Q: What sequence folds into this?
């Protein structure tokens, strides 16, 4: 894996992460997950400018869950 982080910075980040409580690590993970979701939705909005918010959520579900499960959650889509 390529990295632009020095080994010293990596070591410091690991040390700081190990000092966090489980709750702090979970909170950071959830925040990163929400950031990725937000970025994915922004890309989908740019790719499908006429799509409704529900359609964007459906398209995100297709990306994350696959067509079959997205259709089971949101109902099948025509076209």
A:
């Amino acid at each position: 894996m390529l990295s632009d982080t020095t080994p010293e910075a990596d070591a410091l980040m690991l040390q700081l992460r190990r000092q966090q409580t489980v709750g702090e690590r979970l909170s950071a993970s959830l925040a990163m997950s929400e950031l990725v979701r937000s970025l994915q939705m922004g890309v989908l909005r740019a790719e499908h400018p006429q799509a409704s918010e529900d359609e964007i959520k459906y398209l995100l579900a297709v990306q994350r869950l696959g067509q079959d499960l997205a259709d089971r959650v949101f109902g099948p889509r025509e076209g």
Remarks:
- The chain has four helices and no strands.
- Residues 20 and 27 are 10 Å apart (CA to CA).
